[in-house]
Design a protein that fits this description.
Blueprint: H1 2-8, H2 15-22, H3 26-34, H4 39-57, H5 64-73, H6 80-90
Length: 99
């Protein structure tokens, strides 16, 4: 999380200053920046794309339980908790429907 903050503000502040303020080593930051994305992160990005598609198609109504059901029907293997975490980080939430 700290490294991502440094990456975001890289154009405005010197990297060395931000690393010192956040108490991380500059070599650690540059190592993180050069490292390729992990398979899990790539899969989360792909899954988040599918979640966004379903959420947009449902006009923002669909929540985690129905999202999990839709994705499972498509053959995705992701738990409710993983889908909830991805949706929360992206600011997506369902709208409760009256019965």
């Amino acid at each position: 999380m700290k490294y991502e903050s440094i990456q975001r503000c890289r154009g405005r502040y010197p990297v060395q200053l931000m690393c010192r303020c956040l108490r991380v080593s500059t070599s650690g930051f540059y190592g993180w920046a050069r490292r390729p994305k992990s398979p899990r992160k790539l899969d989360n990005e792909r899954l988040l794309g599918r979640i966004r598609e379903h959420h947009t198609a449902s006009d923002g109504v669909i929540g985690v339980p129905r999202m999990h059901e839709e994705l499972t029907d498509e053959g995705e293997t992701a738990s409710n908790n993983r889908i909830a975490r991805l949706m929360t980080r992206d600011g997506l939430q369902g709208i409760p429907q009256r019965k």
